[in-house]
Amino acid sequence: MGFRKLRLFEITTEVGADGYPVYSATPTRLQGTSTDEDFNSVSIKLTSVKKSKTLVADDIEKVHEIEVGYDIELEVLGVDPAATESVFGFVKDTAGNVKEVVNGTKKKFGLFFEGKTASGTVFQKYLYKVSFSTPDIEQQADSGENVVTLKITGKGEIITDSTGTQVKAYTVYEGNSGFVTTDPTTMHKGPVS
Fold first, then answer.
1. Residues 6 or more apart whose Cβ sits within 8 Å of residue 156
2. CA 164 from chain center: how many Å?
3. Residue 106: φ, ψ to 5°
4. pLDDT tens digits, 81-113
5. CB within 8 A of 52, min separation 6: which ones?
6. Distance between CA 189 and CA 161 in Å, rounded?
7. Alpha carbons 106 and 19: distance in angstroms, whole number
8. pTM to 2 decimals?
């Protein structure tokens, strides 16, 4: 299965008139702003976070389950120093070094990536509201065979649009309206009703 073109759109306003966040016009690439071909995304995993409660009445037990968010696990080859400022709240100095500030205000993002199903169908996924934790670092001696990757975890939130519908993501399939063949410039929200 494929995974590429990871992009982050910084949220500038938490809730816009349509219920969706308002995003910056230019996405962030974890490997920097270069126009070089993407070569960074290793894997992504989205896991639903659910809450359930058990209702008992008339000698019948019913379990009510709702999705309240999702966990994100990203594995990438690295994060460019400039991208660490917006993604993790770090501070890049004039020499290009990074001060790792802790417990600062975390920015939130819309996340875009392109994938491919096991049957070869290409899709683009838009996650509307995510934030990331500071990554753990693990280094090892280079044996010439090992590739060191960076694992980044985060949380995704459910949003409520202007119709009262709760939304986590939007998936657009190749060949359908809304599929973009270049870098995305906006977060896809579907056709206007």
1. 46, 69, 70, 71, 72, 111, 127, 129, 130, 168
2. 23
3. -90, 135
4. 878 888 888 888 888 888 888 876 778 999 999
5. 63, 64, 65, 66
6. 10
7. 21
8. 0.85
